[in-house]
Design goal:
By secondary structure, the protein is an alpha+beta fold. Helices cover 30% and strands 19% of the residues. The protein contains twelve helices and 14 strands. Strand 8 and strand 9 form a beta hairpin. It is globular and about 60 Å long. It starts with 11 loop residues before the first helix and ends in a 6-residue tail after the last helix. The relative contact order is 0.17. It comes from Canavalia gladiata (Sword bean). Keywords: Iron, Metal-binding, Oxidoreductase, Vitamin C. GO terms for molecular function: L-ascorbic acid binding; metal ion binding; oxidoreductase activity.
Length: 359
């Protein structure tokens, strides 16, 4: 399959921006290209209450028969009411997590010259940096590395295989353990939704991507956005805040809620694909990342999507006269390409997929 194509921006000056390089010298002002006041809707004034109500799901309880039924119902309610939960007792080895943290930090501490060996190439979305679609595009206060890791046959030869060997080795270990967690969760979600197993097999041997992000401190965090508000195109996303610094916010009932996550928990959110396949029973979550004035924040996200040759649409086993399809059905390859040609803007792509929008 050919690379995802995005509109090209010919400005090498814009393409070469790095927030880490920007803050090497004291800033007297924030560059205009990073100022995003329009995206700074206030968060909840009662966020201290919300911090303790984010659903917590126990992975081990879903494995064992005597506790599975109750925990599966908790998972089902979390996905219907929140579309977001933290997963504890997930089984990812602490040594793997600690080594991964050190290696990701080490990667972002490499010289810009070293990191630019992995830079995003024109017309592509994978690599180091940010996808630039226009010269007047507002930029996030963060540096990223985005790579497709599965299927292995589709790994770009200049990206994952060329990473520093120690980072590549720990990522391989991490991805094996994370795939076990992610595919288990996907299976339980299908079970909770009562979707026929044959329809859920689209996730087997599916697409898996990772995104490592470094959010440097910002002297004026109220002016910038670490990650623009959006919902994920994936089925599910699993986020690991590797250095324990919080900054993620989710939008619930029109209110932005800051999350204070257990240090040993993984964050899992429902993506647009699962909202489509569940025909709206589960909701994808609009979320954003804020930055800190004093501390850097580092995270790694892993995205789970169906295989390229599958079709994405409401599961047939859920559709009947009382529950008609709310979303279009399209090929996975077209779905992904369309997503990457758009700027991140809340849940706009999901709205484009609704049957009421025929354009």
């Amino acid at each position: 399959m050919e690379s995802f194509q995005v509109p090209r921006c010919e400005s090498s000056e814009v393409m070469g921006l790095s927030v880490q390089e920007l803050i090497k010298k004291p800033l007297t002002s924030i560059p205009q290209s990073y100022i995003q006041l329009h995206n700074h809707e206030p968060s909840s004034l009662k966020n201290e209450t919300f911090r303790h109500t984010i659903p917590t799901i126990n992975f081990k309880k879903l494995i064992h028969g005597e506790t599975k039924e109750l925990e599966l119902e908790k998972l089902n309610l979390a996905c219907r009411d929140w579309g977001f939960f933290q997963l504890v007792d997930h089984g990812i080895r602490p040594l793997v997590l600690e080594t991964l943290k050190a290696e990701i930090e080490g990667f972002f501490m490499l010289s810009l010259e070293e990191k630019m060996k992995y830079k995003i190439r024109p017309g592509d979305v994978e690599g180091y940096g940010n996808v630039i679609r226009s010269k007047d595009q507002k930029l996030d206060w963060g540096d990223r590395m985005f790579i497709q890791i599965n299927p292995r046959s589709m790994r770009k030869p200049h990206l994952f295989p060329m990473l520093p060997s120690s980072l590549r080795s720990i990522l391989e270990l991490y991805m094996v353990e994370m795939e076990n967690v992610g595919m288990s969760v996907v299976g339980w979600l299908g079970e909770a939704l009562k979707i026929e197993k044959r329809e859920w097999k689209v996730f087997e041997d599916g697409i898996q991507n990772i995104r490592m992000t470094y959010y440097p401190p910002c002297p004026r965090p109220e002016l910038v956005m670490g990650l623009t508000a959006h919902s994920d195109a994936a089925g599910i996303t699993i986020l690991n805040q590797t250095n324990g610094v919080n900054g993620l916010q989710i939008k619930k009932d029109g209110i932005w809620i800051p999350l204070n996550v257990n240090s040993d928990a993984l964050l899992i959110n429902i993506g647009d694909i699962l909202e489509i396949m569940s025909n709206g029973a589960y909701k994808s979550v609009e979320h954003r990342a804020m930055v800190n004035s004093e501390k850097e924040r580092i995270s790694i996200a892993m995205f789970f999507l169906p295989k390229f040759e599958s079709e994405i649409g409401p599961a047939i086993s859920l559709i009947n006269s009382e529950n008609p399809p709310l979303f279009k059905t399209i090929g996975m390859e077209k779905y992904v390409k369309n997503y990457f040609t758009r700027n991140m803007d809340g849940k706009s792509y999901l709205e484009h997929m609704r049957i009421t929008n025929q354009n």
